[in-house]
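Final report, closing paragraph on structural work. Over the funding period we assembled a curated collection of sequence-structure pairs, and we close with a single example.
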Amino acid sequence: MKNLLTQRPRGTADILPQESARWQDIERTVRELCRLYGYQEIRTPIFEHTELFARGVGETTDIVEKEMYTFEDRGGRSVTLRPEGTASVVRAFVENKLYGLSDVVKLYYIGPMFRYEKPQKGRLRQLHQFGCEVFAAPGPDVDAEVIALNVEMLTRAGLQGVKVELNSVGCSVCRPQHRAQMLAKLTPLKDQLCTDCQRRLERNPMRIFDCKNESCQRVLAASEAPTILQSLCEDCQNHFSGVQNLLRTAGISFEINSHLVRGLDYYTRTAWECVLPGYSSVAGGGRYNGLVAEAGGPETPGIGFAVGLDRLLMILLEQQRETFVRAGLEVFVAVADVLAQGYSMEILQELRAAGIAADKDYLGRGLKAQLKSADRRGATYTVIVGERELANETVGLKNLSTGSQLELPRAALVGYLQNGGDKQ
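Its predicted structure, as stored:
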């Protein structure tokens, strides 16, 4: 019998200290990139009222139908652990009346999401996402910017071989015409579709293009079911052409994928995915011009994307074959004599106060074992103190990369390290 006290729930992961360093590096990268693009961070609750996701994400989506963690709280209210970030950000945008601001609102978030799906490599039930959302900008220039930000985020993180697949999924004007065409083509073949697609045919037939079932894809091909690109209204067509032209101007290559519809019902017009050979989609997003009004706010255009950080880090690890990220320790203080313990603590505090990451041995080990520990932890320098250094108010300083060693007055140590040490 399994001991549940010592086993994490299925579909979750422990992020250990050496892995946390990698996560922190990615988070620093995206925060700096968002600063450059003019985005500000928003943090929303981990759980929301269930209705927000049922109406916002879409009742026909796999997320709402199969994957949400929904339960009643002690007050009998139905609440759901957030399965994605956009609906929560839209709710916050409306509730806090951010639409009253006189400018475009650019937001980003980083945090955990929860989906009850089959755990597999790179896909967990508690996943972590980075996402961006822009409100009140209707033009194709913002679409191009957000796609550029998505691509640059992946590139700066170190991902190689990213490609953009682009589509338009139309709007409330042209979608009804496409729906009618899909129903005419597929209703006679309904029995050949999978159970999910039979439901989609009634509710949102365009989502059949998103089905991974090969038999459904054969039915689509045999029926010659039209893609939404064949039904775009003039405004959607002009918008889509504008996005393409601006992406070319920005030097961002892309391919049109007329079957790309994404997995959420709220998308309108521009939709895209960043794909990687061997891994399929690694990020994606789109425009959602009706979602703010659906959440009770004024008619406000919106657009955004999300990146699964767990999956991104898995791919980076496989591409770069890295197994360990150093934790950023700059100085390890090694004590050669018990009389210098107090002296070593004074030095540690001076280093930390100056913004230099420093640590020491707390197990009473010998000097040789301490030096091995310093190397194992990735320290750049080891400060060595003993009875002689205590008496002379000096320190021994060893560069663990080059092996060079020198003696410094204690008062000069911080300045020496802040000026680059022996790298100057």
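The two ends are 60 Å apart (CA to CA). The domain at 331-417 is CATH 3.40.50.800 (Rossmann fold). We thank the funder for supporting this effort.
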